[in-house]
Write a structure and sequence with these properties.
The protein is globular and about 45 Å long. Strand 3, helix 3 and strand 4 form a beta-alpha-beta unit. Helices cover 36% and strands 14% of the residues. The chain has 148 residues and is an alpha/beta fold. It is built from 4 helices and 4 strands; from the N terminus they run βαβαβαβα. The longest helix is centred in the C-terminal third of the chain and has 22 residues. It has a single domain, classed as Rossmann fold, CATH 3.40.50.2300. This is ArsC family transcriptional regulator. Keywords: Arsenical resistance. InterPro entries: Ptyr_pPase, Ptyr_pPase_sf.
Protein backbone atom coordinates (compact mmCIF):
# COMPACT_ATOMS: atom_id res chain seq x y z
CA UNK A 1 0.00 0.00 0.00
CA UNK A 2 1.37 3.42 -0.98
CA UNK A 3 2.02 5.90 1.76
CA UNK A 4 0.28 9.24 1.79
CA UNK A 5 2.21 12.06 0.15
CA UNK A 6 4.06 14.32 2.60
CA UNK A 7 3.24 18.02 2.51
CA UNK A 8 6.88 18.98 1.95
CA UNK A 9 10.01 17.13 0.88
CA UNK A 10 13.64 18.22 0.94
CA UNK A 11 16.17 16.35 -1.20
CA UNK A 12 19.67 16.83 0.16
CA UNK A 13 23.10 15.90 -1.14
CA UNK A 14 26.73 16.96 -0.86
CA UNK A 15 26.85 19.82 -3.41
CA UNK A 16 23.27 20.44 -4.63
CA UNK A 17 24.55 20.25 -8.19
CA UNK A 18 23.45 16.84 -9.54
CA UNK A 19 21.52 14.26 -7.48
CA UNK A 20 19.38 16.48 -5.24
CA UNK A 21 18.58 18.86 -8.11
CA UNK A 22 17.52 15.93 -10.33
CA UNK A 23 15.42 14.43 -7.53
CA UNK A 24 13.64 17.71 -6.80
CA UNK A 25 12.86 18.28 -10.49
CA UNK A 26 11.50 14.75 -10.93
CA UNK A 27 9.42 14.98 -7.74
CA UNK A 28 8.03 18.37 -8.84
CA UNK A 29 7.20 16.92 -12.26
CA UNK A 30 5.06 14.15 -10.76
CA UNK A 31 3.79 15.73 -7.52
CA UNK A 32 4.60 19.45 -7.63
CA UNK A 33 0.99 20.56 -7.28
CA UNK A 34 0.48 18.42 -4.17
CA UNK A 35 3.88 18.59 -2.43
CA UNK A 36 6.26 21.45 -1.66
CA UNK A 37 9.66 20.30 -2.98
CA UNK A 38 13.09 21.80 -2.32
CA UNK A 39 16.70 20.70 -2.60
CA UNK A 40 19.97 21.68 -0.98
CA UNK A 41 23.50 20.52 -0.28
CA UNK A 42 26.09 20.68 2.44
CA UNK A 43 27.98 22.99 0.13
CA UNK A 44 26.70 24.95 -2.84
CA UNK A 45 28.20 23.71 -6.09
CA UNK A 46 27.86 24.88 -9.65
CA UNK A 47 24.99 23.21 -11.47
CA UNK A 48 26.45 20.33 -13.44
CA UNK A 49 26.14 20.52 -17.24
CA UNK A 50 25.81 16.75 -17.59
CA UNK A 51 22.90 16.81 -15.13
CA UNK A 52 21.23 19.54 -17.19
CA UNK A 53 21.72 17.51 -20.39
CA UNK A 54 20.28 14.22 -19.09
CA UNK A 55 17.30 15.98 -17.50
CA UNK A 56 16.58 17.73 -20.82
CA UNK A 57 16.45 14.25 -22.39
CA UNK A 58 13.33 13.52 -20.32
CA UNK A 59 11.83 16.98 -20.86
CA UNK A 60 12.80 18.59 -17.54
CA UNK A 61 14.69 21.90 -17.55
CA UNK A 62 16.93 22.47 -14.53
CA UNK A 63 19.25 24.94 -16.30
CA UNK A 64 18.17 27.96 -14.24
CA UNK A 65 18.44 26.24 -10.85
CA UNK A 66 20.56 28.08 -8.27
CA UNK A 67 22.41 25.79 -5.87
CA UNK A 68 21.86 26.32 -2.14
CA UNK A 69 23.08 24.98 1.18
CA UNK A 70 21.11 23.79 4.20
CA UNK A 71 21.74 27.21 5.78
CA UNK A 72 20.28 29.04 2.77
CA UNK A 73 16.91 27.27 2.81
CA UNK A 74 14.02 29.70 3.12
CA UNK A 75 11.84 27.13 4.85
CA UNK A 76 13.61 25.18 7.58
CA UNK A 77 10.80 22.73 8.24
CA UNK A 78 9.97 19.73 6.10
CA UNK A 79 7.79 16.66 6.63
CA UNK A 80 10.41 14.46 4.99
CA UNK A 81 14.09 14.86 4.16
CA UNK A 82 15.50 12.42 1.63
CA UNK A 83 19.28 12.35 1.61
CA UNK A 84 21.23 11.09 -1.37
CA UNK A 85 24.75 11.04 0.08
CA UNK A 86 26.18 9.85 3.43
CA UNK A 87 27.38 13.39 4.22
CA UNK A 88 23.91 14.83 3.75
CA UNK A 89 22.42 12.02 5.84
CA UNK A 90 24.57 12.97 8.83
CA UNK A 91 23.63 16.65 8.50
CA UNK A 92 19.92 15.89 8.14
CA UNK A 93 19.90 13.66 11.22
CA UNK A 94 21.63 16.40 13.24
CA UNK A 95 19.24 19.04 11.89
CA UNK A 96 16.12 17.06 12.75
CA UNK A 97 17.01 16.09 16.33
CA UNK A 98 14.71 18.84 17.58
CA UNK A 99 11.92 18.61 14.99
CA UNK A 100 9.28 16.13 13.98
CA UNK A 101 10.64 15.24 10.57
CA UNK A 102 11.32 11.90 8.96
CA UNK A 103 14.69 11.32 7.29
CA UNK A 104 15.26 8.66 4.63
CA UNK A 105 18.63 7.74 3.18
CA UNK A 106 18.63 6.79 -0.49
CA UNK A 107 22.23 5.87 -1.17
CA UNK A 108 22.74 7.22 -4.69
CA UNK A 109 25.81 6.84 -6.88
CA UNK A 110 27.89 9.98 -7.48
CA UNK A 111 28.13 10.24 -11.28
CA UNK A 112 30.67 13.07 -11.04
CA UNK A 113 33.42 10.57 -10.21
CA UNK A 114 33.05 8.76 -13.55
CA UNK A 115 35.82 9.51 -16.03
CA UNK A 116 35.93 8.84 -19.73
CA UNK A 117 34.36 10.13 -22.91
CA UNK A 118 31.38 12.46 -22.92
CA UNK A 119 29.10 9.53 -23.76
CA UNK A 120 30.49 7.36 -20.93
CA UNK A 121 29.93 10.20 -18.46
CA UNK A 122 26.44 10.96 -19.80
CA UNK A 123 25.51 7.30 -19.40
CA UNK A 124 26.53 7.43 -15.72
CA UNK A 125 24.33 10.50 -15.20
CA UNK A 126 21.43 8.78 -17.00
CA UNK A 127 21.74 5.83 -14.66
CA UNK A 128 21.60 8.13 -11.63
CA UNK A 129 18.60 10.01 -13.10
CA UNK A 130 16.75 6.78 -13.82
CA UNK A 131 17.55 5.32 -10.39
CA UNK A 132 16.22 8.46 -8.67
CA UNK A 133 13.10 8.50 -10.87
CA UNK A 134 12.41 4.83 -10.07
CA UNK A 135 12.82 5.43 -6.32
CA UNK A 136 10.50 8.45 -6.41
CA UNK A 137 7.79 6.59 -8.32
CA UNK A 138 8.08 3.58 -5.99
CA UNK A 139 7.93 5.74 -2.87
CA UNK A 140 5.37 8.26 -4.18
CA UNK A 141 3.28 6.50 -6.87
CA UNK A 142 1.41 8.54 -9.44
CA UNK A 143 -2.27 7.92 -10.02
CA UNK A 144 -5.23 6.95 -7.90
CA UNK A 145 -4.53 5.26 -4.60
CA UNK A 146 -5.14 1.50 -4.67
CA UNK A 147 -8.42 0.33 -3.14
CA UNK A 148 -7.99 -1.39 0.19
Amino acid sequence: MAEELPGSVLFACSFNAVRSVMAAAIMRHYHGTKVYVESCGLRAGDLDGFAVAVMEEIGLDISTYKSKTFDELEDGFFDLIITLSPEAQHRAVEMTRTMACDVEFWNTFDATIVEGSREVRLEAYRQVRDQIKKRILERFPVGPAPKV
